[in-house]
Amino acid sequence: MEKASLVLENGSVFRGFSFGHAGDAAGEVVFGTSMVGYPESLTDPSFEGQILVSSYPLVGNYGVLEDIAEDGLCRYYESERIHVRGLVVSEYAREYSHWSAKKSLDRWLEEQNIPGICGVDTRELTKVLRESGAMRGVICSAGSFDGEIAPDAFPTAGGENPVAEASCKEVVRYGEEGNGRRTVVLVDCGVKHNILRCLLRRGVNVVRVPWNYDFSQIDYDGLFLSNGPGDPDLCRETIKHIRRELSGDRPIFGICLGSQLLAKAAGAKTYKLKYGHRGHNQPVRRCGEARCFVTSQNHGYAVDDSTLGGEWKPFFTNMNDGTNEGIIHEHKPFFSVQFHPEAASGPTDTAFLFDRFIEGMGA
């Protein structure tokens, strides 16, 4: 096995062995706490531009299945490609076992030119990221790292807009026009395919538009704001289009980045979390109730509750750190959540929110 290293911008070096693509990569280094679901996580567009550290020690033991495209959507994956820049694990299972597996994780990463490192003390690495915060890093997979990384090797923080990379490039329609069903405009900021599957299973037509598309000329019954990567401040065009729609009464539902964009359109502020929320085990409480839910999450920014306007209020709160997990309008059918109710992969405790959105359209 070839030696490899992960070098953080604070000078920390974590050594291990290369698997997947034998190349270098740079990105923001973040950790996730999921025990399973690496095919879904790696294809989640919200990880665009990031190096993912798995805090669960064993990865790759059930291999990777061959995805099937149906009606323009992946059946199992969350997008058509891997979005992480690199993968860091403690132990990589070179022998996989699952009845549906068609290839190893190692081969899949190699096919998509994504470097991985195994043999890393990911518990210590996770502690560093929790204490110091998410930071930029470089994977050096061509031999063992020995020396210093040039400052320009680290990606520029806040430079490019990853949403532009993750979003679709043209309008895509799902469902047949004139079939009598309600129509949802979905603003694609890096949408997970299971969100589309969840909407289509509920009997609506979906018009998927690029992140900066002016959808005002489309005849629709509900507006959906998708998840996606990066800083919501980089999506000024999207925020402008959403703000215009707040004067109406058509239902609006936002997930993850979509929640932050809805909040900013309403006049609230967002901020970067120290190390974000990423995993299938994030507990949230619905505000005003004692009821809690276990949720799947993947985000690095949050809404500042104190900046919400008078007609808006928090919808859910994170039970670990008290941060905002969604907002809701007091009178109009506008709401959003910071977590993923479509949960692929992850708990389905909050899937009822899709029904709430559909019912708001009178479908």
How would you portray this structure in words?
The chain is of the alpha/beta class and 363 residues long. It has helices at 38-42, 105-111, 122-132, 162-166, 193-201, 236-245, 257-265, 352-360; strands at residues 3-8, 13-20, 25-32, 50-54, 58-59, 64-65, 69-70, 73-74, 86-88, 91-92, 101-103, 115-118, 135-140, 172-174, 183-188, 205-210, 222-225, 252-255, 270-286, 292-303, 312-314, 316-318, 326-329, 334-337. Helix content is 18%, strand content 33%. A hairpin with a 2-residue loop joins strand 7 and strand 8 (73-74). Helix 6 packs across helix 7 (257-265). The chain is globular. The N and C termini lie far apart (57 Å).
Strand order of the largest sheet: 14-16-15-17-18-24-23-21
Number of helices: 8
Strand content: 25-35%
Radius of gyration, rounded?
20 Å
Secondary structure: helix percent: 10-25%
| Biggest β-sheet strands, sense, barrel | 8 strands, mixed
Q: So what's the overall shape?
A: globular
Helix-strand category: alpha/beta
Cα separation of the termini: 57 Å
Mean pLDDT: 93
pLDDT < 50 runs, ≥5 residues: none
Count of β-strands: 24
Features:
alpha/beta; 33% strand
Secondary-structure map:
Blueprint (H helix, E strand, L loop, with lengths): L2 E6 L4 E8 L4 E8 L5 H5 L7 E5 L3 E2 L4 E2 L3 E2 L2 E2 L11 E3 L2 E2 L8 E3 L1 H7 L3 E4 L3 H11 L2 E6 L21 H5 L5 E3 L8 E6 L4 H9 L3 E6 L11 E4 L10 H10 L6 E4 L1 H9 L4 E17 L5 E12 L8 E3 L1 E3 L7 E4 L4 E4 L14 H9 L3
Parallel strand pairs: 3-4, 4-9, 5-10, 9-12, 15-16, 15-17, 17-18, 18-24
Antiparallel strand pairs: 1-2, 1-13, 2-12, 3-13, 6-11, 7-8, 14-16, 19-20, 19-22, 21-23, 23-24
Helix pairs in contact: 6-7
